[in-house]
Structure of Cation diffusion facilitator family transporter:
Amino acid sequence: MSTPHSHDDDDDHPHASHAAHAIKDRAIKNQAIKDPAPTSRNESRLLLAFALTLITLLVEAGGGWWSGSLALIADAGHMLVDALALLLAWAGAHFSRRPPDARRSFGYARLEVLAAYSNALIQFLLVAWIVTEAGMRLFKPEAILSGVMFWIALAGLVINALVLRVLHVGPHAHGDHGHAHGDEDLNMRSANLHVLGDLLGSLGAVVAALLIRYFGWLQADPILSVLVSLLILRGAWRLLQRSGHILLEGTPDNIDHAQVTATLLQDVAAVQDVHHLHFWQLVGGAHMATLHVRLATSTDAEKIDSDQVLRDIKQLLHERYQIRHATVQIELKACPDIQCHD
């Protein structure tokens, strides 16, 4: 037997503790409706950071071409990665609020993952070009306008510091309401890390410009370019791994099938067997699950409240494993599926 899957956490519970939980859920939802400002502010900050980063990378790319500095061009390439990351972070925050439709029942949030995967592949090509060019310049250095390189790199350093200030998210004492905005805060902290890498790249370009100007060490430019390209490569590889894992419907990192099964068997009364577990995520943090649960068979089977068991299972999955959407098939007899334990 299976029970229909319910998406509403506000159903009236037969016990006082469940009623209190439902009241708390209503309060959180009502507060989120009354105060949409945090998400809106995050979107505005991400969009402003993207605009500033885009302007800076265009200036550095133009300055690198004008001065002959590969380091500036490499730093502009690194900033291109992060500009796209900021744009994706904004798009994720924006489109995640777009309601699903008949053709896309899970909504549009995975556009962010698809774009991230494509972005990572492009960055591998960029790194290959930078390393090849740097190798040629190590053996045959080209003249560089160190003054132009210095001032443009310094301007990039200042703007990156400004962007980091715009994005900065300080520590907050979150209660239950803070949990509702946890994904937005995580998104902002991720953007902070990207911009911090840009700032370090600009700082390195400033140092390289000074080495060239006062010591005539032209090799500093290609060496720094390779170091910056390693930053790009590291970020691109991690982005490719994460986005590819999500697109392949991989199990989220914080979820272990055996542990979830053991927890359900131990902590939810009347659960005798858990099988056919599948976990995945739409985007980072948006965890989903489907599973079959067989209830205990005994002379008291008719006294088991399957609706209450369903609520307990979904509450446990949400609180311990951050699973927002769970489809649970309740069974009183053997699983009717042919390959039930796959």
